[in-house]
Amino acid sequence: MIYSSVLSAVVSALAAEAIDNTSKQAWQKLYEPGSEDGHDLATLGRSVSQGEISRMDADCWVYARLHSQLSPRHWHALVAKYSTHRVSKVQAVAGLHPLIASHAPKLFIINAVTAWAIPRLKGADGKRSTDMIVLPAEFYDVNRWDPEARPERTRRRWKKGIDDTLEEMVGEALRHAGQLLEFEGLSLQSAA
Questions:
Q1: Residue 124 three-state SS
Q2: If DSSP codes are grouped into helix, strand and coil, which group holds residue 189?
Q3: Cα–Cα distance measured from residue 144 to residue 130, given in angstroms and rounded to the nearest whole number
Q4: How far apart are the C-alpha atoms of 58 and 171, rounded to whole Å?
Q5: pTM (2 decimals)?
Q6: So where are the chain's domains?
Q7: To 5 degrees, how large is the angle CA 95–CA 91–CA 144?
Q8: Mean pLDDT of 112-132
């Protein structure tokens, strides 16, 4: 077994994107289009366990498979939630906010999706890595997201609704990813 769960497969595959490694595409040599069994990831899993290819190759394979097979909605949800790749995370946020149905104004929705995808980091000014997106502390003030200054209760309700919708998308995406990886022959535990 390469991954202990669907979540570990997703996180590991998304982390592989952030690693600058020119050999990331080595897994493509193992791909056999039109393979009779159609379970290419199972073959990949055996290759990793036998030391024929690296875990990085497996992660890149899973990344490519998920990216091509998941709906854009599900792909964006996973990337926004779990990726550390700056450009991909920003693109995912841009792909998600138009999908959110809410009575909140557009600026509020965009900011709520961004805050969900890029949560405030603990520590001195949230600084961790130069590759991490760190937003200023004042960004997370929901009072700034609504120029019409509606009641705080309304803003909290909007934010919770948006967060709940995004978490639901992530749950759906992990279920679909699990089904895909299972079909491909990887044995995984549940997404939770």
A1: helix
A2: strand
A3: 26
A4: 23
A5: 0.79
A6: 6-72+174-183, 84-172
A7: 80
A8: 75
